[in-house]
From TrEMBL:
It comes from Sphingomonas corticis. Pfam families: Ferritin_2 (PF13668). Signal peptide: none annotated. It comes from the Bacteria. This is Ferritin-like domain-containing protein. PROSITE patterns: TAT. PANTHER family: DESICCATION-LIKE PROTEIN, OS05G0151100 PROTEIN. Residues 41-65 are annotated as: Disordered.
Length: 347
């Protein structure tokens, strides 16, 4: 218990050192929430002009509510809740504290639900243990950063399933990737890395894909900063798996299976080499052939060296573990909180 408290105190101290970077974000949130913002597929359609005749004007054409910057940031907050709880369980044995998951105020939606099913990993590799603690601190900082600056608009943490077993989200994800349904990300260093691998590449593509939805340059810079951190995390996980996979090829095979499952879930969008959009936007860590010899595949990019993007609905396809248009499932059994909550009907 003492060790756990010391670790939690250390994580809190790490977060407090970053508090000074948060204030720039606060003033802009109110303005962005009230401004006209980008909808998921583009600008909302204009309302019909009333017919200039003596007869009553027709009712305006109904349109979907515009997506605000606050909506986009709350979508990101749901994903941060998922990652932060996974790493908190792995590093400390406990989920996020109640103070870090409640709705921000009257305009924040949802009732906070503690994440369930995770447990502390008994690490045997000191480097992996330290990576887990570092990433746990970063993800907690992201949660607190977004919550503090969304203020009363911050959504509560939804139900999050981090349990193991054939019917759990991890179990179903494992089966889709060709792994046993009994896959347990808390049972070993290697399985922890595979569990982290399920999330990390998705987080990078989610932040990159959401960039076009943000109207505020302040928010865009903040999101770019978080994307960079998520990319560092993904590189840590991919590098660790690659090194271990040189001795245990089954680990590399597992990443290929996970990548294929994510590709199957998020559809086949038309390729755009400049924006980093592709029908196959996921890669495992199998070594690749180059004119100069075999190379590692730590960084998943297209032929232009550009990282891939996913739309918010595509990201939800993956975390809901469903290729259809649904509002809940997988790691979020009751869905995410906020305006952006429906996955795409993949084709």
């Amino acid at each position: 218990m003492a060790d756990s408290q010391e670790l939690i105190d250390a994580l809190d101290n790490r977060v407090r050192r970053r508090e000074s970077r948060r204030s720039f974000f606060t003033d802009a949130i109110g303005a962005a929430a009230g401004s006209a913002a980008l909808a998921m597929g583009g600008r909302a359609a204009a309302q019909s002009t009333p017919t200039p005749t003596p007869s009553p004007s027709p009712s305006p054409t109904s349109t979907a509510a515009p997506i605000t910057d606050a909506d986009v940031l709350n979508f990101a907050l749901n994903l941060e809740y998922l990652e932060a709880n996974f790493y908190a369980f792995a590093a400390t044995g406990s989920p996020l504290a109640a103070a870090d998951i409640a709705a921000g105020g009257a305009t924040g939606t949802g009732t906070a639900v503690a994440a369930t099913g995770g447990r502390r990993v008994t690490f045997t590799d000191p480097a992996v243990a330290q990576y887990a603690r570092e990433i746990a601190a970063d993800e907690l900082a992201h949660v607190r950063f977004l919550r503090t600056n969304l203020g009363t608009a911050a959504v509560a943490q939804p139900a999050i399933d981090l349990s193991t077993g054939p019917t759990s989200a991890f179990g179903r994800a494992a089966v889709a990737a060709g792994l046993p349904a009994t896959f347990d990300p808390y049972s070993s260093d290697e399985n922890f890395l595979l569990g982290a691998y399920i999330f990390e590449d998705v987080g990078v593509s989610a932040y990159k894909g959401s960039a076009t939805l943000l109207s505020s340059k302040t928010f865009l810079e903040a999101a770019a900063g978080i994307l960079a951190v998520e990319a560092y995390h993904a590189a840590i996980i991919r590098t660790s798996l690659y090194r271990k996979g040189l001795a245990t090829p089954a680990l590399i095979d597992a990443t290929e299976g996970i990548a294929a499952a994510r590709n199957a879930l998020d559809g086949r969008p038309t390729e755009d080499l400049i924006r980093g959009i592709a029908p196959n936007d996921d890669q495992g860590i199998r070594p690749i052939a180059t004119p100069d010899g075999t190379a590692s595949n730590i960084v998943p990019v297209n032929v232009n060296g550009i990282a891939f993007s996913r739309t918010a609905p595509q990201v939800l396809n993956i975390v809901y573990l469903n290729a259809a248009a649904v509002t809940a499932g997988g790691f979020f059994p009751a869905g995410v909180n906020g305006t952006i909550k429906t996955s795409a009907a993949s084709t």
